[in-house]
Fold this sequence. Notes:
With 444 residues, the chain is mainly α. Helix content is 65%, strand content 2%. It is built from 21 helices and four strands.
Amino acid sequence: MATSRTVPNLAFRHLRGQRSPGEFAAAVRRAAREIGEQVACDARYIGRVESGEIRCPNYAYERVFLHMFPGLSLTDLGFAAREQVRGRAARAAAAGAPAPLITTRNDEESDVLRRAFMTSGTATLAAASLGLGGVVPAPRAGGRFGETEVAAVEEAVRRIRLLDDRHGADRLYRMAAEPLRGAYALLDAGTAARRSTADRMHAGAGELALSVGWLAHDSGSPDDARSLYAEALATARVAGDAALEAHAFSNTSFLARDAGRYREAVRAAQAGQSAGRHLRSPRLLALLALREAGGRAGLGDRVACEEALGRAHTLFGRGRSDADPEWMSFFGEPELEALEAQCWSALGDWPRATRHARRAVALQDPHFTRNLALYRAQLAADLARGGSPEEAAATGEQVLDLLEDVHSSRVRAMLTDTARLLVPYADGATVSAFLERSAALAPA
Length: 444
């Protein structure tokens, strides 16, 4: 039986030049931000492209690469034509091979998951209607797993984050639980030939638990979120994965703050800082300092909150690092401003809260619809509490427009609180229009 042979992509390697794979991956991420795209590029991805493992990039990477190298085509960059990659199934069927299991996917379709579909005897599919790439193959005969299964788990994590950025959690949460079950089934039933593969599977399963936990958090299921975060933390401890542990504590702190468990939020943030102190990622420590600040603000401790905010700004100012975890792609200046706005809001300092919330909205790329809706909802709430009802209502109307595409119980709950604050000002035309629309808003 003929087998396909991987051909190194020498053209792409030439374009990288003297830069290391990590440095080139950082350049790819910067180029993505320039055009409002989001890719989770790291040195491993660059290595897979150069080795020929990725024959054709997904559409997001295609747009970024063509932006980086204007005038060049995908073929010039050393990739195969997309129709050649996608035509494998048709060629196999023509040759008499059984048809693989494939769903219709959107423009972010990945080569990794196409291979997972085609090589797995059994595949678990979740959220096909949304294009969620939650394909996690079942364990192979003998219970072993390898690169295909690990890559599928890692891609499921990226897919969930991408869809959450654009659509919010409500439509994704229950669907995303399916690939999570598949990932932990692989860990429970399987073994890997190499320690590095096993480590990646533990990390991937833990990150998937955190991603699904965040969907639970954002869709109004805090108990489920807490359980999933605990599962991820246990996975991190078993694997000795400090980066995963820091991420789990970051999410746990955020959830505890939202639930009003402010001391727990502080303790979890401090534990995350301890876990992450040797990871060489100032941005990670900045985010964890912001988590601590949020807990301090909830406790009403303004001095300690300001101290934590100061540390966060200092660390953030050190810039990005190749050691920044992949999941932190969301953490830029808009998120920094939004989290600081939440601190001042908790402390009742509405002018400062409003100022930082305005900056978060102004800086946020409109490509990330969910975060834009969240930041505007925060701004509307701060304006309402700060005595600017008409502007609060106008901002709330903008959030309502975004909720046609974004499904987030958390954002809806914020708007409901804002509407309640604005009821005394219902005589104003803008406020009245907002109250009427928000009252008619269908439940999530």
